[in-house]
Amino acid sequence: MTYAIETEHLRYRVGKAFEISALDLRVPTGSIYGFLGPNGSGKTTTIRLILGLLQPVSGRITVLGRPMPAQYARILRHIGYVPEQPHLDATMTVRELLDFQAAFYAQWDRPRAEELVQRFELDPGRLFGRLSKGQKAKVMILLALAQRGELLVLDEPTDGLDPVVRRDILSALLTYVSERGATILISSHLVHELERVCDWIAVMDNGRLITESPMDKIKHGTKRLVVTGAPAEIGNPPFQLLTRESANGAGEYWVVGNWEPDMTTYVESLGASIRDVIDLDLEEGFVELLRGFRAKERAVRV
Amino acid sequence: MRGMFRAVLYAQWKWSRLIVVLGTVAGFAIPLVSLQGAARPDRGALQAQELLRAVQSWGSVYPLLAAALGLLIAIAAWAADHRGRHIHALTLPLPRWQYVALRFGAGLALLTAPIAAVLIGALLGTVMATLPPGLQAYPIALTLRFALAVFVAYAVFFAVSAGTARTAGIILGAIAVLLLVQVMASVANLEWNLLGALQVVLLQGPGPLAVFTGRWMLIDV
User: Fold this and answer.
1) Strands A3-14, A18-23: parallel, antiparallel or unpaired by DSSP?
2) In the predicted model, is pLDDT for residue A292 greater than 90?
3) What pLDDT score was predicted for residue B21?
4) CA–CA separation, A89 vs A70, rounded Å?
5) Is some CB atom of chain A closer than 8 A to the CB atom of B18?
6) Which residues 47-106 of chain B have a CB within 8 Å of chain A?
7) From A90, which residue of chain B is nearest by alpha-carbon distance?
8) Which of A11, A203, A242, B110 has the fewest beta carbons under 10 Å from its own?
C-alpha cells in the first residue's frame, strides 16, 4: 500500500499547554480519510504541519512521496486545501479569485472551474466578502477542485453549513475522487457525514492519535458487549478493550474495538460469558474511543 | 512567473488604486504649483531669490509625499494577507521568498506612476517657466531623488508591515527602550544624546534615510 501522507513520530509544541506527540499517521493513496476529534484535539495543527505551514519539533512528514516542509513549494502544486475559516480576500470578486488562483497552478482546470461556478450557482461578479457562508465554502471547494490536485486537504469544509450545501459539496468531492482517483483528507466534527463518505478513519484527542483504521473495521469492529463472570484482570486480549464498567448487577459492559465474532472463545476461556453483542454506529464508537482513551490517560497520570 | 506577477499586481492595484491615483495627481501637480509664479507672463521673470524661496518651500512636500506613498503602498501590499492570517499565501505553490518578491515588485511597479508624474510635472513646469539668469532647472535629478526616497520608504515600511505583530512589538519595544535610557540618562545628569546620535546615523549622509533631508530643489543655482 502506498501513502499520500505519512508522518512518523511527529512532535509539535504550542506553548506549554498543548503538544502533538508521537503522531504516526498513514493516509493511503486514493482513500477518503476522515480525521475525527473534539475541538482542540490537534486536527488543524496536524493539517498545518502536513501542509508545511508549521515546522515540527521532531519527526518526519512525507506528502506525495516528498519530504515536507523541505519541498513545500513542489508538494503544494499538487494539493488543494480548504481551511477551517475562509481566508480569501473579501474585496475580490469570485471571478478575480479564480483568475488569481489560476495564475499559480499550471494544471488549473478552467472548464471545470466554470462548470462548478454554474453547478454551485455562484455569481462570478459578486465580492467574496458579500457571499453567504455556504457560498464561501463552495468557492473554497471550487478553487481546491479546479487545481486538479492529487491530494485534497479539507479542514472542516462543511462545518456550520445547511444540509443542501453540505450535500452539494460532498457530491462534488465524490465526483472528483471517482474521476481522478485523488486522495482526500477531511477533518470534521460531523461523524455521520464522514461515515457516509470515508473509507478510512483516524481519531485524535489531546494531540495524540487514538486510532487509525479502515471504516469497515471501525464500524463493524466496535461493539458493546454484555459480559458476566469476567475476572478483574484479563491480560492482553486480541481485541481493543476501550471501556469496562458495571452493568448494574447484570455483569459488565465492555466497549471493544477490532472485534471479530470468533473472539468469543477468548472471552469464554477467561471463564466469562457474553450475553449480548450490541453494534455501535460510528458516533457511538467515536465517543467510546474517546472515553476509553481519556480513562487510560487519567490512570497513567494517577 | 509572469502570470503570477500579473495576478499579484492586479490584486495590489485593486487594493491601492486610490493611493496611486492621488499620489500620481499630487506628484504631477507639486512641481507645476511650485513654479506657478515663474510662469506668469504678466510679471515676467521673478526675482531669483523669490523664486528660490518658493521652490524651496514646496521642496519639503516631496519627501513627505515619498514617505506617505511608501508607507501606504507597503501597508496595502500586506493588508489582505494579514487579514487572512497568511494562510492563502503560505499554501500557494511557490517558494515564500518568491511570493514576497512578487508582492514587493508589484508595489514598486505601482509606485512608478507617481514617480513618472513627478518627472512629467517637473519637465512641464520647467519648460513653461521663465527662469531668471543664473538659475537652472533640475527636473531629472529631482525625480531621481524622489524615486530613491519612495524606494527607501517603501522598502522600510514593506519590511516592517510584512512582519507579525511580534515584529512590530520588537521594533516599538526597541524604540521605547531607547527613549527610556535617554530619559534615565537625563535624570542621572549623564551627557548622553542617544536620540541625537540616532538622528545623525539615520538622517545624515551616508545614513539610510539621508535622502529625505536637505534641499529638494527643482530650480537652483
Assistant:
1) antiparallel
2) no
3) 97
4) 28
5) no
6) 80, 83-85, 87-88, 90-95
7) B80
8) A11
In whole angstroms, what is the distance from residue B40 CA to residue B61 CA?
A: 22
On chain B, the residues whose CB falls within 8 A of the CB of A91 are 14-15, 80
Band of pLDDT at residue A104, cut at 50, 70 and 90: very high
The residue with greater pLDDT, A181 or A102, is A102
B89 to chain A, minimum CA–CA distance in Å?
A: 10
| DSSP designation for A127 | B
Whether A105 sits inside 8 A of B93 (CB atoms) is: yes
Nearest-by-CA chain A residue for B84: A87
- Superfamily the domain A3-214 falls into: P-loop containing nucleotide triphosphate hydrolases (3.40.50.300)
CB A51 to CB B91 under 8 A? yes
- In the 8-state DSSP scheme, what is residue B210? G
Query: Structural domain boundaries of chain A?
Result: 3-214, 217-301
CA pair distance A236, A238, nearest whole angstrom: 7
- Classify residue B116: in a domain, yes or no: yes
User: Which positions in chain A have a beta carbon within 8 angstroms of at least one beta carbon in chain B?
Assistant: 51-53, 73-74, 76-77, 79, 81, 83, 87-92, 96, 99-100, 102-105
pTM of the model: 0.83
Q: Average pLDDT of A171-191?
A: 87
Name the residue among A52, A83, A102 with its Cβ closest to that of B87. A83
CB A142 within 8 A of CB A116: yes
Residue in this structure with the C-alpha cell 503602498, named with its chain if needed:
B73
CA atoms within 13 A of residue A26's CA, in its CB half-sphere: 9
Tell me the pLDDT tens digit for each residue of A211-257. Answer: 888 988 888 888 888 888 888 888 788 888 888 888 777 788 888 88
Name the closest residue on chain A to residue B78, using Cα atoms.
Answer: A89
Band of the pLDDT at A63, cuts 50, 70, 90?
very high
For residue B160, the enclosing domain spans 2-164+212-220
Query: Which pLDDT value is given to residue A161?
Result: 80
The residue whose grid cell reads 544624546 is B193
Is the model more confident about B64 or about A168?
Answer: B64
The pLDDT of residue B46 is 55
In a domain, B196, yes or no: no
C-alpha span between A84 and A39 (Å, rounded): 12
| CA B8 – CA B92 distance, rounded (Å) | 12
Residues of chain B with pLDDT under 70: 37-46
Does residue B125 lie in a domain region?
Answer: yes
Whether B206 maps to a domain, the answer reads no
ipTM of the prediction greater than 0.85, yes or no? no
Number of domains in chain B: 1
